[in-house]
Design brief:
With 345 residues, the protein is of the alpha/beta class. It has 2 domains: 163 residues, Medium-chain alcohol dehydrogenases, catalytic domain (Quinone Oxidoreductase, Chain A, domain 1, Alpha-Beta Complex), CATH 3.90.180.10; 150 residues, NAD(P)-binding Rossmann-like Domain (Rossmann fold), CATH 3.40.50. Helices cover 24% and strands 26% of the residues. It has 9 helices and 15 strands. The longest helix has 13 residues.
Length: 345
């Protein structure tokens, strides 16, 4: 059996290019005791993948050169010599950008952070949802809003990168908890989608020159919580919009990932003093031992229609990964971007 894999062969400078990767065709060896083989079905496409390509200290170890490009995914066990998994089991873990993933239970890791292997329990819920609302993006939104942000009914919450995988779920959690929710995104079409399909109260296109004034018109006393997935100038401007005692939650910085060597931080940070506000970063894996409980609650919200878990699914082979990945940074998706993997040969 052949396996096509996408290898990272050099570290990108700026936007990743074709010469940073290589498609490698390898033979899948017979399984040893304790091993299991997964046929990959769906791969998660996330902004944070860009930071994994870079060298240097981060919340997660960088992908080694010559290694398979890291990606969370879902798939089915097609062969097993493990007592814990049988043929036909569906799982989600760090599968990598490849057609098949060979593991034994001891080397299933979310790249040095925590052991992460989840057997899909609810067959009614589509596989790809376990990469969005029930996956790492959903965990980021859930714990960012509830454990870190500590949102309260009646507060005004603003979410940047609102049309992405984390943003759509974060905004909907804030809404069902009784907050007024404003999404910041990159087009009028996405604004309409956030309001019409993802339960946001308002959505604002940051490409309009008066977007800050629009936010202050909605919430004249300021924003109680800003959930930031973007960083850069949007973070800088939002610091001037905070209410007294407001909180800024740093979930990500998508605007800066292709500029890792010269990342732009906030110049407007003195607003934190003026407003007695605070800014805090977090990593979802800090709450890993609570993931199952969170997943159960989010699944109930989905089944009750309180959260729309829609994903933006694109079909492609491992050789299409780069184009799909760069399309995400170009803002081509509304909702969590997921790649439905097709076999090359």
């Amino acid at each position: 059996m052949k396996n096509n894999q996408l290898l990272l062969v050099s570290r990108p400078l700026g936007i990743p290019k074709e010469n940073n990767f290589e498609v490698h065709n390898s033979e899948v060896n017979p399984l040893k005791s304790g091993e299991f083989l997964i046929k990959n079905h769906f791969l998660s496409i996330d902004p944070g993948m860009r930071s994994w390509m870079a060298e240097g200290k981060s919340y997660i170890n960088p992908i080694r050169l010559g290694g398979v490009m890291r990606a969370m995914g879902t798939g089915v066990v097609v062969d097993s010599r493990s007592p814990d998994l049988k043929v036909g089991d569906f799982i989600t873990t760090d599968l990598g950008v490849q057609e098949y993933a060979l593991f034994d239970k001891n080397n299933i890791t979310a790249r040095g952070i925590q052991t992460y292997l989840y057997k899909l329990q609810d067959k009614i819920i589509p596989q790809q949802t376990y990469l969005g609302a029930l996956g790492i993006p959903g965990m980021t939104a859930y714990f960012g809003m509830l454990a870190v942000g500590k949102i309260q009914a009646g507060e005004t919450v603003v979410v940047s990168g609102a049309a992405g995988g984390v943003g759509t779920v974060a905004g909907q959690i804030a809404k069902l908890k009784g907050c007024t929710v404003i999404g910041i995104t990159s087009s009028d079409e996405k604004c309409q989608d956030l309001v019409n399909n993802f339960h946001f109260d308002y959505a604002i296109n940051y490409k309009t020159p008066n977007w800050r004034e629009q936010i202050m018109a909605i919430s004249p006393s300021g924003v109680n919580l800003f959930f930031d997935n973007v960083g850069g100038n949007i973070l800088n401007i939002m610091l001037s919009c905070m209410a007294k005692g407001g909180r800024v939650i740093i979930s990500g910085a998508a605007s800066q990932y292709n500029n890792m060597a010269f990342m732009r931080g906030p110049a407007n940070y003195l607003s934190l003093i003026v407003n007695r506000a605070k800014m805090e970063g977090f990593i979802n894996m800090d709450y890993y031992d609570q993931f199952n409980d969170a997943r159960i609650e989010i699944a109930e919200w989905i089944k009750s229609g309180l959260i729309n878990p829609d994903n933006f699914v694109i079909k492609g082979g491992v050789n299409d990964f780069l184009e799909i990945f760069n399309n995400m940074f170009a803002g081509k998706n509304t909702g969590k971007m997921v790649m439905q993997l097709k076999t090359l040969n």
